[in-house]
Amino acid sequence: MRFTLLTALAAAFISTTSVNTIAQNAPVAKVWPAAKANAWYAQHKWMSGADFIPSTAINQLEMWQADSFDPKTIDKELGYAEGIGFNTMRVFLYSLAWQQDKPGFKKRIDDYLAIADKHHIKTMFVFFDDCWNADAKIGKQPAPKTGVHNSGWLQDPGNRLGTPGQEAMLKAYVTDIMTAFKNDKRILLWDLYNEPGNSKKKDASMDLLVKVFTWARAVNPSQPLSVGLWDWSFEKLNTYQALNSDVITYHDYTEEPSHLKTIQMLKTHGRPLICTEYMARTRNSRFETVMPMLKKENVGALNWGFVAGKTNTIYAWDTPMPNGGEPKEWFHDIFRKDGTPYKPEEVELIKKLNGK
């Protein structure tokens, strides 16, 4: 979500021995056959969109807690998405919001889905996340740190993992949400775990990765399951993710020639591909070069960032701006809060690719 894919493609080719070893413990029999996955993908229009959080929320808790849930802003900003032809948004849930208020949380998910559906947008929900801050707290969320990218974004479960009762809570959370929405046609796909192994966790994330796939398969939703590949050096995690995903999702913040090589390698799985994170302008991952290539390759295209707001993702991962000024070039995001495009030519390109 926040770091570029390694460009050494050789590291991406997983050894046969490792695949066979991990496959013995994987619920491979319940993974959709490739033919079913490809038939599912063929039923949908080319997927384009963004990772979405309203500009008024600094993190997942601020988006979903009752006191700060903001349907008015969600409606307005998903209207911007509809206007440029986006049809898919990737949205992060949060376990503490469920634990605090289970019926209310599910009602807010339903409210969100109703708004998205009104704008002809399908949703890809994310459960767990290994990125950024590890110590989440229910209640009022902190203000953004001036000029710092995603200063308030939360890992889930972060530091809570391993504390008494936590695993049972996480299992109940995933099971409850997926059971409630397992046949909801407004949901495109369940993205079970964002960037497992990030924040220097590496293979320590394998246990939760295996468990969340197991819990999700037990629910057996009508929608496909996936966990995105993102760091080619994580051999064990990558193997498990690829073998257990119905549809292959991945992140790539590299420029177009390198990104194309990633696609060519991932196509060897014989499954549909959806890029669930790309577009970092200062790293030369740009709409004008990458998005047309993704459409040509029939790969779903979801960029990180939509409306500039409290997440501060106009600033680069590794380049804070202590004065809080607007960077010379935005890292992520497409629109200002009032709906004005950051770069009108980008929006025109997106509309053209989406047939608007």
Automatic annotation (TrEMBL):
<keyword id="KW-0378">Hydrolase</keyword>
<protein>
    <submittedName>
        <fullName>Cellulase family glycosylhydrolase</fullName>
    </submittedName>
</protein>
<dbReference type="InterPro" id="IPR006103">
    <property type="entry name" value="Glyco_hydro_2_cat"/>
</dbReference>
<dbReference type="InterPro" id="IPR017853">
    <property type="entry name" value="GH"/>
</dbReference>
<feature type="domain" description="Glycoside hydrolase family 2 catalytic">
    <location>
        <begin position="173"/>
        <end position="295"/>
    </location>
</feature>
<dbReference type="Pfam" id="PF02836">
    <property type="entry name" value="Glyco_hydro_2_C"/>
</dbReference>
<dbReference type="GO" id="GO:0004553">
    <property type="term" value="F:hydrolase activity, hydrolyzing O-glycosyl compounds"/>
</dbReference>
<feature type="signal peptide">
    <location>
        <begin position="1"/>
        <end position="23"/>
    </location>
</feature>
<keyword id="KW-0732">Signal</keyword>
<dbReference type="GO" id="GO:0005975">
    <property type="term" value="P:carbohydrate metabolic process"/>
</dbReference>
